[in-house]
Automatic annotation (TrEMBL):
Keyword terms of this UniProt record: Signal
GO cellular component: extracellular space
PANTHER family, sorted: FIBRINOGEN/TENASCIN/ANGIOPOEITIN, PROTEIN SCABROUS
Protein name: Fibrinogen C-terminal domain-containing protein
Highest taxon listed in the record's lineage: Eukaryota
Residues annotated as domain Fibrinogen C-terminal: 265-495
Pfam families the UniProt entry points to: Fibrinogen_C (PF00147)
PROSITE patterns reported in the protein's UniProt record: FIBRINOGEN_C_2 (PS51406)
Signal peptide positions (record): 1-23
Organism the protein comes from: Cherax quadricarinatus (Australian red claw crayfish)
């Protein structure tokens, strides 16, 4: 394409060379015959240029607008993402902090109680015994001294009397002048008594020092575990919903369990649950025991303990969490408030009772737990269901249920299928998945309702064989409900029976 401007430049060059004959090379403008054309073209060019420029400007502005819009949208997306990530991190940090503070509280209070309640008592007791012992020895020595001094005086006075209980052979008539021998004997006796006293004291002190050392080593081990847990938590995957004991990897969990078991054998250790009682006294009969789920000596609770078969003690160690049955104690109302389900209600061992979500959380967070349900259907007899992993989260997460590892002879794993991961609900605290209805109100009992349930073991008793009524039920084969009139829910540390057997047979 030919540019019209080139023609103009060409013409100017021709014009300049035409006038170059002038000596001083003065430029004489030459009339350009095409000036008007150039002017028009110039004008035209400006118009074209203007149009072109406008077009270009429009194009450019359009592009800029689009780019800005795109940038805006990317920016807002990034902002949303960033704040979500931040929230997530803050949440996780919050959980980790709570968990650390809880572990810290538990261990601090346990150590406090251990020292206050146990070590100090032991020392006081030992001191009392030593003092008593020393008193007895000293008064015996005093008696002997008095007796011997009398004899000595008598001897010196030429009075060879007999004195039963004296250091002298009872029949011997001590000749005058043998007072040196008597002194020797007295001195020997005193030396022997003092030596025996000393060795006795040494034994006592060794024992006390052993007790103190062993408690130190347990505390050290626990501290090590806490710092491991701490490391694990800060490395990020503190939260899981998968059901394994959160924040503990297998090897740490195993070590922790074995430390807790050792602690169990320390004199004065507070039993946390029925398995601790069972471990210490396997022969103890099934019944009510005091336990300290939070390891706080000022917070004991009564629990009903299932201690196992006479001939298979490893079947025991269970803390009964829930009991439903119709007895002469009368029926217990299970339509209760959040606070009551947290605290527990009913009298363990008598009629019906609920253990309490607070204590259940304290137990199942310290180590992995297993549970067993024993149920009686009004027409079909007995059933059982067991879960090798059971955990109840804390109140800030509404005591969410973590459960898996089903075995049993009900034909449907109704609990983990429907209730795993569900928070607890009561008539005054609706945490279920239905927005229209509070499942706890429509079923009148507290439970880990979802929308709403496949199991509801705190509902009212059946008054007929109607399997569709809202009574205590467990969803079974072909979506037929088991209707129950007797229920036991019990819990103990996971894998307890194997560890108990190893312990019983000397590891
Ligand atoms: C070119 O434009 C100028 C002013 O913009 C005008 O005075 C002139 O007459 C125009 N020339 C032609 C040839 O149209
Ligand atoms: C645990 O508690 C003690 C005292 O109660 C405190 O000094 C310590 O910093 C706490 N540790 C953590 C990790 O919270
Ligand atoms: C000799 O000993 C007897 C019995 O201990 C006592 O009754 C008696 O008074 C003593 N005699 C003298 C001289 O001290
Ligand atoms: C658990 O942690 C220990 C060290 O803290 C590590 O050696 C082990 O491999 C871990 N186990 C699993 C299953 O992650
Ligand atoms: C509980 O047992 C009593 C006495 O056997 C009986 O009268 C009552 O109907 C039972 N209640 C329920 C809800 O089964
Ligand atoms: C389920 O197991 C229990 C023992 O726990 C047994 O008594 C019962 O007969 C079994 N029920 C069925 C339906 O197999
Ligand atoms: C459960 O208790 C609440 C509060 O007392 C009451 O409003 C509700 O009617 C009760 N539900 C049943 C089924 O009794």
């Amino acid at each position: 394409m030919i540019n019209y401007r080139d023609f103009r430049v060409l013409w100017l060059l021709v014009a300049v060379s035409a006038s170059s004959s002038s000596a001083d090379y003065e430029y004489t403008p030459v009339e350009d015959p095409l000036q008007s054309v150039w002017d028009r073209l110039d004008n035209l060019s400006q118009e074209i240029f203007k149009v072109f420029q406008e077009k270009l400007e429009n194009q450019f502005q359009q592009l800029q607008r689009e780019m800005n819009e795109k940038l805006e949208s990317v920016k807002s997306k990034v902002e949303v993402k960033t704040s979500a990530i931040n929230n997530n991190i803050m949440n996780n940090l919050g959980h980790v902090d709570n968990k650390m503070a809880e572990i810290n509280r538990t261990i601090t209070s346990w150590m406090q109680n251990y020292y206050d309640g146990h070590v100090r008592n032991d020392l006081d007791e030992a001191r009392r015994k030593i003092e008593e012992h020393v008193d007895v020895k000293i008064s015996a020595l005093e008696n002997k001294f008095v007796g011997n001094i009398n004899i000595l005086m008598n001897l010196l006075a030429g009075n060879a009397s007999r004195s039963s209980g004296s250091l002298l052979p009872s029949d011997a008539t001590v000749p005058a002048g043998s007072s040196a021998l008597v002194e020797q004997r007295i001195s020997n006796t005193v030396t022997t008594a003092v030596t025996s006293l000393e060795s006795n004291l040494r034994d006592q002190l060794t024992h006390i020092s052993n007790v103190v050392t062993s408690s130190h080593s347990i505390v050290d081990t626990i501290n090590t575990h806490v710092s491991k847990i701490n490391d694990k938590l800060s490395s990020g995957d503190g939260e899981t919903g998968t059901g394994t004991h959160s924040c503990l990897n297998d090897s740490i969990a195993i070590e922790l369990i074995s430390t807790l078991e050792k602690a169990r054998e320390t004199p004065g250790f507070l039993p946390r649950d029925c398995s601790d009682h069972h471990w210490q006294q396997p022969e103890a009969p099934t019944g009510v025991f005091q336990i300290y789920p939070t390891m706080d000596s000022k917070a004991p609770i009564s629990a009903f303990c299932e201690m196992g078969d006479e001939n298979a003690k490893e079947t025991g160690g269970w803390t009964v969490i829930l009991r439903r049955r119709n007895t002469t104690f009368g029926l217990t109302n299970f339509n209760r408030t959040w606070a009551e389900y947290r605290q527990g209600f009913g009298i363990p061992g008598e009629g019906e009772w609920w253990f309490g979500l607070g204590a259940l959380h304290a137990l199942t967070y310290r180590q992995p737990y297993e549970v067993r349900f024993l149920m009686h259907d009004i027409e079909r007899g007995y059933f059982h269901a067991s879960y090798s992993n059971f955990r109840v989260e804390d109140e800030t997460r509404n005591y969410r249920l973590i459960v898996n590892g089903f075995t049993g002879n009900v034909s449907q794993d109704a609990l983990s299928t429907k209730h795993h991961g569900s928070p607890f609900s009561t008539f005054d605290r609706d945490n279920d998945q239905l927005s229209s209805v509070n499942c706890a109100v429509s079923n009148s009992g507290g439970w880990w309702f979802n929308s709403c349930y496949y199991t509801t073991l705190t509902a009212p008793f059946p008054t007929s064989a109607n399997r569709d009524a809202k009574t205590i039920r467990w969803l079974n084969d072909n979506n037929l409900w088991l209707v129950l009139d007797d229920v036991v829910l019990m819990a103990r540390p996971a894998g307890y029976s194997a560890r108990f057997n190893a312990h019983l047979h000397g590891e």
